Amino acid sequence: MEANETNANHKFYTITANSVDELVRSGIYYILSEGELISSRAGDAQQAYGVNYLLKQPMNRLHTTRPGAVSYLAREFVAYFKGSLKAEDGLAKASKFWMSLTDENGNVNSNYGYYVFYEFVEGHGNQYNWVKHVLMANRDTRRAIININQSYHKSDTKNFPCTIGIQFYIKNNVLYCETTSRSTDIITGLPYDMGFFSFIHELMWKDLCQSGMTDLELGTTVMKTTFTQIYNKTRQKAHEVIESHLIGESQERMPLIESAKDTISDILNGEQNTSIIKWVHSHAE
To answer: What pTM value is reported for the model?
Structure first.
């Protein structure tokens, strides 16, 4: 864990780990030791500020220290792949909780797959294709961004997307992925958001490699959070994650992406021809 002090009152911390399990555990320790008590729309919490969560090995994206976490992640993946903002047709199949956040049309704004794979970009089809295009055209581009929280979300919605955007860049032949988040719940947010963002990172890396960038390496996946918290209602779960360290961690991983083209085809067509998409659907049941 590294601290960069910018003034007497505020520090930015980077928590670095090889797995999502390690990130979550270290984040819990940091929030419990440094966080401040707050009251928010979502409830009372202990909150830390300016924390960067850095996953050194993006394939180690499964949260295994809480029962049911892997299957929940898989169900979120299925909803993201479908890309429907209609809760009943998407995220509510992962958890009924999402129904409490719907608008008058039954929609929620936090289906991240919609913004990655389905939100239209003229000339490119979607934001994923835009990122691939600008990276292929210029390895030094600073435009490889997927926007998630957008101007049309600025309303009294109960579901204001926590993630602002995802940025990709290449440095020294290494592809990095950095997301910016306004607020990240260490229990119900970080494990699953990092799981999805690291998957998109791996997918983009494999796609670029198989499109001609054969020397490209996979770098770290980072979530830069302005606020990160433990809510009082999930404090017991946070302590359970810490205690689970005593019995070790699972080495389970998702299959590697073998073909980016085939994986994207599975996602967009609702099919299961690749090992990784088969894995997602089998664990979502």
So the answer is: 0.95
